[in-house]
Design goal:
Length: about 625
């Protein structure tokens, strides 16, 4: 229907859409080339993009983007075509060096979409593609709240950039970009680029991104946003109601950047700002260069969840500067980032805080290892013919972290830090494969004996956790465990628990381990005495909801439904729906989801759809 609307409104695209059908015929989805090592992109290594000039009009009424992508390209002598990834894009006219050409679209491959083949010569310099996004482009979420200005944001990692930009959507291909974006009056546009700090009257914004980035880091947000600076190179964007709150919460951000630079070298992206998104944002944070996108659920009111900022900031080195070559190497992005995040947290808040976080990471990892099939617990993943999203779990993050920590403990911190600093510097704006990293490790850091003792192959290519995994221990969390056991055994009562003095990590440790078969009144007494359901910390609230569902504490269901209406963060939403199903509340889950589904981003929808076996006919 939306498509019909476009046809009526924009005559240009009347032509383009029919043209698209005419010229479309089946083309094999992928040809062999040096790039065929990336199973999630159709791009070919003999013709790649180098710079993007993007002109776009964002229509928040139609929920579409009308755009032209003009790429400067680099070709090898044998290049006869350039291949881009697209998914659900309406492609209009395509020009090569200003001359209109006939393009072809490959067959629709599950998850990957359709390869766009553009005929070129090896002397071609520039390609230009006119296109319109579909109303339900998977990367984009259009947020409409009664009485509030419209909001839209993109979330492209891992392979959704192609749903709003025809691009070579492989993390191994980098390009610089400039953009001219027009948005409705009263709104500001922000990108993973040099950003405005004020609204423009015309609704037109110009962006420059001078450092080359892979397509998954191409990002846009449009809303009624204001800016408040933290220091000369950091600041916060948010809607006016949350701006001051967010500004107070992120006070430590300037220091985080300083500490990170001390650890692993100069920050390469000039500014570091954070944008607070609506509750529907599907992740905790996304490391879009120069501008981290963040969920409002980290605004606890007491700075207790700022490790997420440390994490996204750390990606400015691990991930954005040295990027995983394919999604099979995802641990190179996330494992390194968890390690770096931990180091920032330790520098700023001390060893015991960092050890609490590491101990909770181990707790989560144990749970994930118990759930996943063994072959999905290797660090090097095998995601061919699968949605890369399947590999985006604790293995890459926390098994990756423990691998690096195990190496650190073997060689000593000083040596490991020098190695890492040099690694980021010598591979800056480059790509890394798992095998490449292992080569570097063995040639630059580890001697044969050390490599053997650590068991590199085992870590990378075997399931589970090797027996030499670095151990973590937190005195604080041990105390919590001991108190919990006494409390469960009725040796102590609620008022013997130092709940009010506990940090969020201690509270989370307690709630996430309580035996849910205890009497309902005992579970309920926790809320009566500690007012947990009114708490600002979303991690603690989440642990409380999980415990309550498992304990069949139906008294929380109204609050739970309200939470699920406000929050679309998959890490919270999916386990909550799953717990409802497992605990015999599938119809409660379905009723809530009926209301909340339209408000979620596609990545959250896809996960919950699968979980609830949401009928095909009910799906969009
Ligand atoms: N890059 C990820 C988010 C992501 C991963 C998006 C895979 C799409 C596919 C981001 O840096 C991240 O890891 N976010 C975490 C927070 C972190 C503190 C573990 C999240 O969203 O919870
Ligand atoms: Zn991350």
């Amino acid at each position: 229907m939306q498509r019909a609307l476009v046809l009526l409104i924009i005559p240009l695209f009347l032509w383009s859409c029919s043209n698209q059908k005419e010229t479309t015929h089946s083309v094999p989805p992928m040809k062999s080339s040096a790039l065929s090592f990336d199973p999630h992109s159709a791009a070919q290594s003999n013709a790649i993009v180098k710079h993007l000039n993007w002109t776009a009009k964002v229509d928040t009424e139609l929920e579409m983007i009308f755009a032209t992508a003009n790429y400067t390209i680099q070709t090898k002598p044998d290049a006869e075509e350039i291949v881009l990834d697209t998914k659900n894009l309406n492609i209009g006219e395509v020009r090569v060096d200003g001359k209109k050409v006939k393009f072809t679209l490959g067959e629709n491959v599950p998850y990957l979409g359709r390869a766009l083949h553009i005929p070129i010569e090896s002397s071609s310099k520039e390609i230009e593609i006119e296109y319109v996004t579909e109303a339900n482009a998977e990367a984009l979420l259009w947020v409409k709240t009664e009485g509030q200005a419209p909001f839209m944001f993109s979330q492209s990692q891992a392979i959704l950039a192609r749903t709003w930009l025809p691009c070579q959507d492989s993390p191994s291909i980098r390009f610089t970009y400039s953009a001219d974006v027009t948005v409705p009056e009263g709104l500001i546009a922000l990108m993973s680029a040099e950003n405005p700090q004020q609204k423009s009257e015309s609704g037109k914004y110009h962006f420059e991104m001078k450092q080359p980035i892979p397509a998954y880091l191409f990002a846009l947000a449009v809303g009624d946003l204001s800016f408040k600076s933290l220091d000369e190179r950091t600041g916060v964007y948010a809607t006016s109601e949350v701006l001051d709150f967010a500004h107070a919460e992120f006070q430590d951000m300037p220091n985080m950047v300083n500490v990170a630079e001390e650890l692993y070298g100069a920050y390469a992206w000039e500014r570091y700002d954070v944008l607070v998104l609506p509750g529907a944002f599907p992740f905790g944070g996304m490391e879009n260069p120069r501008l981290t996108f963040a969920t409002p659920t980290i605004l606890a009111g007491d700075k207790s969840l700022v490790s997420l900022i440390a994490h996204e900031l750390a990606h400015s080195w691990s991930g954005n500067l040295v990027t995983n070559a394919t999604w099979n190497d995802f641990w190179l992005n996330e494992g390194f980032t968890v390690y770096f995040e931990q180091r920032i947290m330790e520098s700023l808040y001390g060893k015991s805080k960092a050890e609490m976080l590491a101990t909770l990471a181990r707790q989560d990892l144990n749970a994930t290892l118990a759930e996943l099939p063994a072959e999905d617990t290797h660090l090097k993943l095998a995601l061919e013919n699968r949605n890369p999203d399947d590999g985006m779990n604790d293995i890459a993050y926390n098994k990756g972290y423990f691998f690096l920590r195990t190496i650190e403990e073997k060689v000593g911190r000083e040596k490991f830090d020098a190695f890492l600093k040099n690694y980021f510097q010598s591979h800056a704006f480059g790509v890394m494969t798992t095998e490449g990293f292992i080569d570097i490790l063995t040639s630059e850091l580890l001697n044969t004996e050390e490599a053997e003792v650590i068991g590199l192959e085992k870590w990378i290519y075997s399931p589970g956790l090797p027996s030499n995994t670095a151990t973590v221990e937190s005195g604080e969390l041990n105390k919590v465990d001991a108190l919990r056991l006494m409390w469960e055994g009725e040796e102590i009562q609620n008022n013997d628990l130092p709940w009010n003095n506990w940090s969020y990590q201690e509270r989370y440790r307690f709630l996430s381990n309580v035996n849910f078969n205890l009497s309902l009144s005992k579970i309920q007494s926790l809320d009566a005495d500690f007012h947990i359901s009114k708490i600002g910390n979303s991690e603690v609230l989440f642990a409380w909801f999980m415990l309550s569902i498992q304990a069949k504490n139906e008294a929380v269901f109204a609050d739970l439904a309200q939470f699920l209406e406000k929050v679309g963060r998959r890490k919270f939403v999916a386990p909550l729906f799953e717990a409802l199903v497992i605990s015999g509340y599938k119809s409660v889950a379905v009723n809530i989801y009926l209301h909340t589904r339209p408000f979620y981003h596609s990545v959250t929808q896809n996960t919950v759809d699968e979980l609830l076996e949401w009928g095909i006919e009910e799906r969009k």
